[in-house]
Design goal:
This protein is α+β, with helices and mostly antiparallel strands. It contains five helices and six strands, in the order ααββαβαβαββ.
C-alpha cells in the first residue's frame, strides 16, 4: 500500500525511502513511533507514524523546535481525496497536544510541489530544511503548523 501511495513521486524520479522499502523496513519504520492505520472494509488504506516531541532529531528544526513529527504518511491512491489523510492528521495533532507539543511537522522533497501544495491547504508552512541524502536523492523542506 505504501509503495502504491508513493508511486506518483517515484514516477517523478524522487527516491523516497517509502517508494521501495522492504516489508522489514516498513515494520521497523512503523515501530519507531506510534503508528496508526486507517481501515476500510477490512483493508489498510492509510497509515501514519507519529513521533512525540524530541523523538525525531535528525535535523535542526526537529532537534530545536521539538514538534510532534509524523512520517510514513500514506493513503491508498483509490482512497485519496476522501478525507482519510485528514483524519490521520487529526490523530497526530491530538496526540501532539496530549504530549504538550505546540507544532505538528513533517518533511518532504522540496521538488514535491503538489504534495507541498496539499500540506499548505491543510495549514502547513515551510519552516525549515533538511538534507537526508544519500538515503534519498533530494533536499527536503520541513513543513509545520500550529497545533490547535
Amino acid at each position: 500500500m505504501i509503495h502504491r501511495a508513493y508511486s506518483q513521486l517515484a514516477n517523478q524520479g524522487l527516491n523516497y525511502i517509502a517508494t521501495n522499502q522492504s516489508v522489514e523496513t516498513t515494520m521497523e519504520r512503523l515501530a519507531e513511533g506510534e503508528s496508526w492505520c486507517a481501515v476500510v472494509d477490512g483493508h489498510v488504506v492509510g497509515t501514519v507514524t507519529i513521533f512525540a516531541p524530541g523523538e525525531q532529531t535528525g535535523c535542526n528544526y526537529y532537534r530545536n523546535e521539538r514538534p510532534c513529527a509524523f512520517g510514513q504518511f500514506a493513503i491508498e491512491p483509490i482512497h485519496q481525496g476522501k478525507g482519510i489523510g485528514k483524519l490521520l492528521l487529526d490523530v497526530a495533532e491530538r496526540r501532539g497536544r496530549e504530549w504538550g507539543a505546540t507544532t505538528l511537522a513533517c518533511d518532504t522533497s522540496e521538488l514535491a510541489h503538489d504534495l507541498i501544495s496539499m500540506y499548505r491547504k491543510w495549514g502547513f508552512e515551510i519552516v525549515g530544511e533538511a538534507d537526508w541524502r544519500p538515503s534519498v536523492n533530494y533536499k527536503s523542506v520541513i513543513l509545520g503548523r500550529p497545533i490547535k
